[in-house]
Amino acid sequence: MCDMSHSTDGSVDRSQMSGAEIEALSERYQVNPMGHDPLVIAKASGVRITDADGREYLDAISGEWVVNLGFRHPDIVEAAVEQIQQAEWTAPMYNSVPRALLAQKVAEVAPPGLNKILFGLSGSDAVEGAMHLAMRTTGKDEFVSLFQAYHGRTFATLAMSYTHPSMYEGAKKGIERYLTRQIRVPNFNCYRCPFNLTYPSCDLFCAHFVDTMIREGSEGSVAGVIAEPFQANGGMVPAPDGYFNVLRDVCDKNECAMIIDEVQTAWGRCGPMFAMEHYGVVPDMIVVGKAFGGGFPLSGVIVSDKFANLAPWEYGFTQIGHPVSTAASYRMIEVIQRDHLTSHASAMGERFGELLGALYERHQIIGDVRTLGLMIGIELVRDRTTKEHAFEETDWVMHRCVERGLILGKTGPVFPPPRGNVLKLKPAITVQPDEVDEMCRILDEVLTEAEAKFGL
Ligand SMILES: Cc1ncc(COP(=O)(O)O)c(C=O)c1O
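Above are the sequence and the pyridoxal-5'-phosphate SMILES. Below is the predicted complex in structure-token form.
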């Protein structure tokens, strides 16, 4: 047992524990499936984080794109406390005030026709919920998902995630009997097109190819096609304009559900409330999670009447639609509306776009900058012509940024980590212009250091 700080009554004095003490406890008593960073968040407010040793950081990833309003937003704190004072828990089989009100609110802000919600707990179980809804309505049972997609880590969603062999080694080996057969199609990626084509002269071949795969590569029983509007874990890649118009037609023609996974992209992240508003296409279902609970666990499938079919007790988890999460979520949506945060997120996204455009001009290591509102990916390469992935350099940049007090993320087409070569920035949608400037300034300085260090 490590030596921990105890107060006089023998209880643990949490404020006195150092980062090293907490890390020792974690190593000793936790199974850490995602590896873990030694950083211990002790306190946070807005986009500012303080670690257990009192160091301060600027958070460019909204606590892994979960606190879209920033840490400890006063409205969220108030809504959560108010709900706890009413009833901190209501079982899923009873109606609850915050759950009913949130369902109505979501229907109000969702794209037209998506007016019901199936609540879940995390993104993965919500994606499975969407699969249930699609199967019940269509009577079919196959699913199409894209290369480099990420839809979760339950068995069915893992089967629809990633395609690279290194990911198979890391996550799928040994559990094959539980991984259902999924139909995988090449993803959109205009920087590294799997078909070696160029947008727009490609005429969206990748979207039309989904139809080919349903026709030629399925057993004739496709219940749904699932896609992220901006592939996140697969390398921060936005869908090209027009992609979802084609996909909509393909799903209609094949009488299957168009399921859009907005676990990362909803709630103002990409500018509008939902990224699909940017593309102007209404799917049959939108899956939400992560930021949906305002920092508390919550997910859901927002669905049209046509697809809102489940057999009794077909789906459900004890903690779905938790009252504190739903109360916080309701308030989060109200705040986004009240404070015009969708326009603010778009404006801050444009500011990032301009500053990162200037960084692209100055730093040869940047191969591509991809932004949609505050969903931002910066792909690092060793050579702009060959596009050789700068894996080692990206890892170094990310850790150096943390040393310099800037927390950002990393992802990329080759898993498991640390093989990513795409930096991710997804700050709170409340981020202010001076904070955007500070994030870009630190990144600029670190990229200069990286180019000198790696001789680029
Ligand atoms: C697009 C997308 N879908 C689904 C999931 C799964 O969500 P969760 O980790 O909450 O189960 C994630 C998580 O990263 C995600 O990014």
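The two ends are 47 Å apart (CA to CA).
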